[in-house]
Amino acid sequence: MKKNVLIILILIFTPIITLMIRDKILSISGAPPYLVDDGTTKVDLGKFGFLENWKRPDGPPRVGLQVGHWKNDEIPEELHKLEGNTGSSGDGKSEWEVNYEIAMLTKDILEKNGIIVDILPTTVPKAYWADVFVAIHADGSEDPFKSGYKIAAPWRDYTGKAGRLVDYIEGTYGASTLLPIDPEITSNMRGYYAFSFWRFDHAVHPMTVSSILETGFLTSEADRQVIVNDPLTPAEGLAIGIIEYLMSENLLNK
Fold first, then answer.
1. pLDDT digits over 207-245, tens only?
2. pLDDT grade, residue 45 (50/70/90)?
3. Which of 79, 117, 123, 202 is 20 to 30 Å from 192 at the Cα level?
4. Which helix (H) or strand (E) holds 19?
5. Residue 1: its pLDDT value, please?
6. What distance in Å separates the CA atoms of residue 56 and residue 178, rounded to the nearest whole number?
7. CATH number for the segment(s) 2-248
8. Residue 102 in contact with residue 110, Cβ under 8 Å?
9. pLDDT higher for 85 or 22?
10. Contact in structure between 205 and 132 (CB atoms under 8 Å)
11. 198 vs 172, which has greater pLDDT?
12. SS3 149
């Protein structure tokens, strides 16, 4: 009898405990825990066949910098799963504040090089197009010694160029910040909602070369010395990577 009661209690409480652990992990994660694409889901791209003859609009290079978790309370119904997700925090700083500061400093550098820059909140404009889109986030961990940055491209890259963008930014960001590379690229990064143009109206245009950057761990004292106390350094690393990519595409003079 006691054994049966124990089994019943385990069956009842195991899902509850699992959810509590999951929610605890997600509460300190940088990228929103909204996995839309795991890279294996079949997606009908037939309706995007017109993109085969797509041509880049005339004009100077354009870059979209998304401030992760900024204006999260203004999301549309289609992104309702993001409600209440404020990202990571550390030493009295909310993630969006750190992301915003780095984004604005990056914007200043890019604009001085003749690049048009859009600062974007959690909600991306419908079918947003730019030569480059970078979602800026800061990571979090229960391990205070967890440190490093990481950058990822979408599972599905219609442009075929996102991998190159990632390579440029990874190199210059690391050289600028001297932070280690965190090798743990998550599914939430590769399947980031803003990349899912086939599912959401508020997502990047299929021909936007996109990436997501976790600038460092807000829960790490060492990383905060860079991303909080010296935001110009990560901004320079990000900006230089973007500029080098745009030059490789002949969109900026070398």
1. 999 999 999 999 999 999 999 999 999 999 999 999 999
2. low
3. 117
4. helix 2-27
5. 58
6. 35
7. 3.40.630.40
8. no
9. 85
10. no
11. 172
12. strand
232-175-67 Cα angle (round to 5): 45
Running DSSP on this structure, what letter comes out for residue 249? T
Q: Where do we find the tokens 């859009």?
A: 118
Whole-angstrom Cα distance, residue 89 to residue 27? 9
Q: How far apart are CA 131 and CA 248, in angstroms?
A: 12
Q: Are 162 and 131 in contact (CB under 8 A)?
A: no
Query: Partners of 211 in the beta sheet?
Result: 134
Instruction: Please state, in angstroms and as integers, the Cα–Cα distance from residue 88 to each residue in 25, 55, 153, 180, 246, following that order.
Output: 10, 39, 21, 19, 31
Whole-Å CA distances, 32 to 81, 86, 213: 9, 8, 12
Q: Any residues with CB less than 8 A from the CB of 136 and at least 6 apart, and which?
A: 65, 66, 67, 68, 99, 102, 103, 106, 213, 215, 238
CA distance 243 to 125: 23
- With cut-offs at 50, 70 and 90, classify the pLDDT of residue 40: low
And the tokens for 233? 């350094």
Structure tokens at 119: 């600062």
pTM, entire model: 0.85
Domain locations in the chain as residue ranges: 2-248
Higher-confidence residue of 169 and 30: namely: 169
DSSP letters for 173-223: HHHHH-PPB-----HHHHT-GGG-TTT-SSSB-TTS-EEEEEEEETT-HHH
